[in-house]
């Protein structure tokens, strides 16, 4: 079967000439390797496209409420750190864009959310410093330069050695897992997910699940695979919390004259302390 060039060109670019010929032209649906590869590529592109909008509902929710109530600042700091390292590592490894493209979009959206948290807590200068620091770190880790010798050989030099990058990528596993823990604890203490976006949580879970498959199919890197496996487990816990607290309302804030964004919703300890004061008055 022959497809028009406008369809053949993108299909070939995604699954390759060999698998395009086998599956599209020859209709060889018994070619298991090409079927698995094509599914992986399709999932990968879907995840990348989903990653471009996965945090948009979260951003809209925070802007609409003028508050990041229930969204853990610590979680976003750790998640952004892991994303910056992972993005630089994949770029340095020349991995297929379909296996990590969403990391770029998630990093940008996380920086926006961190900026909004700082904005609504009246800490604009801190927000500028945080965002600038993450951008500088990403540039530092991904920076490479090539030099051509007289004999025609090309030597690539980096600011951060490959061995150090492998260690940093391995470190993203505990960092990523640690980024989920504050949000899980925040949800449990509040008995609510606050301004946390259901779209973001469920898409993260589905995306990490799909990433396990694409990594196993296209990338021979146990460090990246282990990270996605463990991330899927913690994303599953967050998805279960979202379902459990679906109709729950966040605890009311004490203080009528307090404006939204006066303090960061990093912890619910202050609300717990206020609750104790109220109970003493009732006694």
UniProtKB/TrEMBL annotation:
It holds the Pfam family PQ-loop. The keyword Transmembrane helix applies. GO terms for cellular component: membrane. It is a multi-pass membrane protein. InterPro entries: MannP-dilichol_defect-1 (IPR016817), PQ-loop_rpt (IPR006603). The chain crosses the membrane at residues 125-142, 154-175, 222-246. SMART domains: CTNS. Its main location: membrane. It is found in: Membrane. Residues 252-283 are annotated as: Disordered. Keywords: Membrane, Repeat, Transmembrane, Transmembrane helix, Transport. It comes from the Eukaryota. Gene3D superfamilies: 1.20.1280.290. Belongs to the MPDU1 (TC 2.A.43.3) family. This is Mannose-P-dolichol utilization defect 1 protein homolog.
């Amino acid at each position: 079967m022959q497809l028009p060039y406008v369809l053949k060109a993108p299909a070939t670019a995604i699954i390759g000439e060999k698998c395009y010929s086998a599956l599209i032209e020859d209709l060889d649906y018994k070619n298991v390797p090409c079927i698995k590869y094509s599914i992986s590529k399709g999932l990968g592109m879907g995840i990348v496209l989903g990653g471009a909008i996965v945090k948009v509902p979260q951003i809209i929710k925070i802007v609409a409420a003028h508050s990041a109530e229930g969204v853990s600042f610590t979680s976003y700091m750790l998640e952004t750190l892991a994303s910056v390292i992972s993005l630089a590592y994949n770029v340095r490894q020349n991995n297929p864009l379909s296996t990590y493209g969403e990391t770029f979009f998630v990093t940008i959206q996380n920086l926006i959310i961190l900026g909004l948290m700082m904005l609504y807590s009246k800490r604009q200068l801190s927000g500028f410093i945080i965002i600038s620091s993450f951008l500088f770190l990403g540039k530092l880790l991904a920076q490479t330069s090539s030099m051509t010798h007289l004999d025609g050989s090309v030597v690539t030099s980096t600011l951060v050695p490959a061995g150090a990058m492998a260690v940093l990528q391995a470190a993203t596993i505990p960092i990523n897992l640690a980024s989920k823990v504050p949000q899980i604890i925040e949800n449990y203490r509040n008995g609510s997910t606050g301004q946390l976006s259901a779209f973001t949580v469920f898409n993260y879970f589905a995306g990490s699940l799909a990433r396990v498959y694409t990594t196993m199919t296209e990338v021979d890197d146990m460090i990246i695979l282990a990270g996605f496996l463990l991330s899927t487990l913690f994303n599953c816990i967050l998805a279960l919390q979202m379902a459990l607290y679906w109709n729950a309302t966040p605890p009311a804030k004490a203080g009528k004259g307090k404006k939204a964004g006066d303090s960061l919703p990093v912890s619910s300890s202050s609300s717990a302390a206020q609750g104790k004061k109220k109970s003493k008055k009732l006694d």
